[in-house]
Amino acid sequence: MPANYGLLVQRKEFLLKIVEIAKKYGTLVVFDEVISGFRTGFQGMSGLLGIRPDLVTYGKIIGGGFPVGCYAGRKDLLDLVAPSGPVYQAGTLSANPFGMRAGLVTLKKAERDSIYSVLEARTKTFADGMVKLLNGKTDREWEAVTHSSLFWFRKKTQQAVRRIDQIPEGHKEGFAKVFHVLLKNGIYLAPSGYEVGFLSWAHNDSVIAKTLEIADKAFKGL
Questions:
Q1: pLDDT tens per residue across span 181-205
Q2: Where do the domains of the chain lie, and which CATH numbers do they carry?
Q3: Which of 39, 148, 193, 199 is 20 to 30 Å from 115 by CA-CA measure?
Q4: For the whole model, what pTM was predicted?
């Protein structure tokens, strides 16, 4: 799920076809779940799609706010990594106890509080609320693309945007106006119109309601 230049949600059929081609030619299937892993659920996008990759990378959430990276995969592939195999791998923060502890506590809390369905609903409430307030205030009609706790605002289109060249013209400039008027009123979104946003467990219903209240007043300055 590309999320570094807009939230470009891909069709399951498209991804399954890529996996089919990779298997046909003996190519490893690698899923980058640094953003989506443990954000879309405990199984990540691969689990939601029913795809079992050969290798998968994780980060961010599994560190509980500390810098971290992780990879997992087939046993025969991981056995190639030292000390079991010939592929050397090391890192300055490998197995850092603070990051590992913070990540473990984060994942335990996510499991205990069953956060994913609640976060998805809150994200939908926030994103749809922002779009409702935005529309009619600028020279374009906006829409929100959401998935789990991820959101992205862009100009409304007739069809889903799945590639960067399908992002509507003038998106960067249009989002910049929204970003700055919100920033002046104490709401900080990611400064790039191509970067997605995330809701955390700390963004409860009262925080979302207060944010929408402030945004409503802020958008009058557009």
A1: 999 999 999 999 999 999 999 999 9
A2: 12-113 (3.40.640.10), 115-219 (3.90.1150.10)
A3: 193
A4: 0.91
